[in-house]
Design a protein that fits this description.
single chain, alpha/beta, ten-stranded mixed β-sheet, 30% helix, globular
Length: 382
């Protein structure tokens, strides 16, 4: 009996450290009547853990990431995975980091209603093409998925929200930026709405050979998925639409308070924007991409230049008093749903504050300073 009580006490104190919270899937079958479907035509899905105590009227909606599909064959290949079909999604998912239900891992949002929205449209919840090629049987309906999920959650209690956050990582982080004001529009003016985008600030940078690979890829995504009508008109009226898929050109038009969490040396951007696989056929960058400490001197110089470009673009954004950011020097990507990155003894810190603490201070207006940039001058493994 004494041993049992000790185990229970340790579980409470440690909050099941190192283990996520298993949440059952909700498949939104009714969304198909609105044409809100995954790439293969299957219904969208999400994982939902209800809030409790003081968090009953508070909501976090988290948008999953997973890159983009830029061609018919590329999108078809995704239909055999959970990134293109709810038929391939797991019956349960683990909630950790910003979605965990203990104050030990998630001090400010642990008892909120927490929702993980599965990503199965391939275009950051933004595409909407009415026509469906019956032969290819591909549906580009990300924007409809976003609305259908919001409507369903509305009927499950979100209409009573007092506080709400739209968040996401990677392609979901970009989706957070793109859909932030739309999310705000669902709620009455007296509801406190803010957005938190992690690892979604993809910059319009060239590769090591000087080619604009990421820009060309975005052009293909924008055209294939019919994104133009869902990109900020204030942006598309001034520049080529695919440029309005880059956060540097979107953020100035976002009116809702926005917090950006990113690395200046983002691992995905180093491996795909700067050194895409087709430019590393000899795999000379393989070890460097895995661990910054394994990079050669010249590789470090190249990565350093990328980080400087990132910071130059980022710091050139139109200032806004409601905007916050936490920019690390870590060679990482999309980790606010990781306990060790969000709130842990070993989490990245700037001015001795973790990401969780800074985001909490920003959301609840507990401090006036919300713009943190890691002073460490080089990329590093974290």
């Amino acid at each position: 009996m004494a041993m049992f009580l000790l185990i229970v006490l340790l579980t409470i104190l440690l909050g099941d450290v190192g283990h996520g919270l298993d949440i059952n899937i909700t498949v939104l079958d009714t969304a198909t009547t609105q044409g809100a479907v995954c790439l293969d035509g299957s219904p969208p899905a999400y994982y939902f853990d209800r809030g409790f105590d003081t968090g009953l009227s508070n909501w976090i909606i988290f948008l999953e990431g997973g890159g983009w599909c830029e061609s018919i064959s590329d999108c078809q290949s995704r239909t055999t995975t959970d990134k293109g079909s709810s038929k391939n999604m797991k019956n349960q998912s683990q909630f950790a980091g910003i979605l965990h239900n203990t104050p030990q891992q998630n001090p400010d949002f642990y008892n909120w209603n927490r929702v993980w929205v599965n990503y199965c449209d391939g275009a950051s919840f933004t595409g909407d093409v009415e026509h469906v090629d019956l032969e290819k049987k591909l549906y580009f309906r990300g924007a409809r998925i976003f609305k259908a999920v919001m409507d369903d959650l509305w009927s499950k209690g979100m209409q009573n929200a007092k506080n709400a956050i739209l968040s996401g990582t990677s392609a979901g982080g970009l989706a957070t930026i793109l859909n932030c004001d739309k999310f705000r529009s669902f709620f009455p003016d007296d509801v406190k709405i803010k957005c938190v985008a992690n690892a979604g600030f993809f910059i319009n940078a060239n590769t090591i050979s000087g080619t604009p690979n990421i820009r060309k890829m975005y052009q293909r995504v924008v055209n294939l998925h019919g994104l133009v009508k869902n990109l900020p008109q204030a942006c598309t009226s001034k520049m080529e639409p695919s440029l309005c898929f880059f956060p540097e050109n979107i953020v100035p038009y976002v009116q809702t308070p926005l917090f950006i969490i990113n690395s200046a040396y983002d691992a995905w951007q180093i491996s795909n924007t700067l050194v895409p696989p087709n430019l590393d056929s000899q795999h000379t960058w393989k070890h460097c991409k895995d661990r910054i400490s394994d990079c050669t001197f010249s590789q470090r110089i190249t990565i350093q230049a990328f980080g400087e470009e990132f910071l130059k673009i980022f710091e050139g954004l139109t200032p806004h008093y409601t905007r916050g950011y936490f920019i690390t020097s870590c060679h990482t990507h999309a980790r606010i749903v990781w306990e060790k990155y969000w709130f842990n003894a070993t989490s990245p810190r700037i001015l001795n504050k973790t990401i969780a603490e800074v985001v909490g201070d920003w959301y609840f207006d507990r401090a006036t300073f919300h713009q943190y940039i890691d002073p460490y001058p080089y990329a590093r493994d974290c």
